[in-house]
Amino acid sequence: MCKIMELINLCKGATVYIQTHNFPDPDAIASAYGLQKILESMGIPSWLCYAGRIDKLSAMKMIETFGIEMYSYDQLCEKMKETDYIVCVDSQKNGGNITDFIGNEVACIDHHSVFADTDYQYSDIRTTGACATIIAEYYEQLGLEPDINTATALLYGIKMDTLQFTRGVTRQDIKMFAFLHPFCDQEKLSRMEHNSMEFADLKAYGAAIDSIKVYGKEGICFIPFSCPDGLIGAVSDFILSLDEVDVAVVSSVREDGIKISVRSETVEVHAGHLIRKALEEVGDGGGHAHMAGGLISKEKLHLLGQFQEHRVKSLFIEALACISDHGKE
């Protein structure tokens, strides 16, 4: 029996919600959608849900293009029960970027490192470039052919989270690309990959360019206005593309505090470890080797002092030095 059958048998007869992290990106959406279609093929209905916002243009286009139905927690909280089953996808309970819903988190499917020891009834947490790769593997194991929209969505999720197979990609990502490719809509995939930037995004790129400072191989930017999570991540990828930069840190001042995105393309610096070290006394953060995110909440901004931009830069410079010194020991 292939592994996914354990989850299918677990969910039979239950009310099932598939929950992504609070600000679902294309990989999270594709993974949740692909899993929903597997359960549906087994006669198990489920609902896709999240707690934050869908604020990335690529994610909004994806939902519209494939007719995906996702519900915010506000839309579901009155009907959810403590006995309902929740499957965490591209996220983990107590992971810092996922809200605790009413219901029982019985399962987790994620491609990040284990964040906290949790007693799931079903767990598939392993390192791949994209969570959509794990879902695609389930189709292959079941001998189940994904419909054209599901295959295209999963392919898009893999390509987006691996930055077109240049970031954190594994052999399994490549294998699942080959598996999905014959089933996908090439024209629809091409449309999804183009025109993914809004005119207003240019302001954030401009602010990042104006503020960037490079310390060794660490490029640090501070955007003095609010940006959605997805845009901050995209700016981080842009900064990382500079030849002089191996580690990118981008911060954005928002109503809820200062949001921070980290990218690393060197094995010497684990992005998740770096952000946890930098924010250990002022905020929260985490992630995997190549990508990480964090927040200094508005309640803790006073800890940065009067010159917030300079203090944030100092925290990451000091954290990088600490990690580098530790690596030499």
Q: Can you walk me through this structure?
A:
This protein folds into two domains: 190 residues, inorganic pyrophosphatase (n-terminal core), CATH 3.90.1640; 127 residues, Diaminopimelate Epimerase, Chain A, domain 1 (Roll). It has twelve helices and twelve strands. The strands form two sheets. The protein has a six-stranded parallel β-sheet with strand order 3-2-1-4-5-6. α2 runs antiparallel to α6, α5 packs antiparallel against α6 and α11 packs across α12. The mean pLDDT is 91.
Please trace the helix and strand order, writing H or E for each element.
HEHEHEHEEEHHHHHEEHEEHEEH
Q: How many structural domains does the protein architecture include?
A: 2
* Structural Rg: 20 Å
Helix content: 40-55%
Summary tags:
41% helix; 329 residues; globular; inorganic pyrophosphatase (n-terminal core); Diaminopimelate Epimerase, Chain A, domain 1; 2 domains; single chain; 6-stranded mixed beta sheet; alpha/beta; 6-stranded parallel beta sheet
Provide the fold topology.
Layout: H1 4-11, E1 16-19, H2 26-41, E2 46-50, H3 57-66, E3 70-72, H4 73-76, E4 85-89, E5 104-110, E6 122-125, H5 131-142, H6 148-161, H7 171-180, H8 186-193, H9 201-211, E7 213-215, E8 218-223, H10 229-240, E9 247-254, E10 257-264, H11 271-278, E11 284-287, E12 291-297, H12 308-328
Helix pairs in contact: 2-5, 2-6, 5-6, 5-7, 6-7, 6-8, 9-10, 11-12
